[in-house]
Amino acid sequence: MFMQREIIRLEPPHGTCDYRGSTTDLYTKNYNTTYSKLSCLKSCYQTIVNRYCNCSWPMYYISDTTNVCNLTDHTVDTCTAGLTSAVPDEYATCDALCPQPCNEVEYDMLSSSAAWPSEKYEV
């Protein structure tokens, strides 16, 4: 069974949520999805990879104007693997550019179990 939970956060000046990030959310822009912190972070990280390695990380959104990073190429693999260590401040900036959304819906899966047959079971 799935349970829907709606999260409503306080807007500025009382909170730090927003309806969009301060950076382009590629998923919202290209797939018309609802803004989320995760999609904004992935978009921000992809921008960093594009800037420093001249390619797009294959696990994030890839635009038509960039090449996919060839991770079998040692130079490209070294660039992408060492990027978080090389420019940690840029990755930290992504967190500030991507606030939590003011409204969010989450779904939790609930499951239960019981011994079969139960004492209450009638034949």
From TrEMBL:
Location within or outside the cell: Membrane
Membrane topology: Multi-pass membrane protein
Broad class of where this protein is predominantly found: membrane
Keyword Glycosyltransferase: no
Family affiliation: Belongs to the amiloride-sensitive sodium channel (TC 1.A.6) family.
Pfam hit, one: ASC
Organism: Littorina saxatilis
GO cellular component: plasma membrane
Molecular-function GO term, any one: ligand-gated sodium channel activity
Domain of life: Eukaryota
Assigned keywords, A-Z: Ion channel, Ion transport, Membrane, Sodium, Sodium channel, Sodium transport, Transmembrane, Transmembrane helix, Transport
Protein name: Uncharacterized protein
InterPro entries linked to this entry: ENaC (IPR001873)
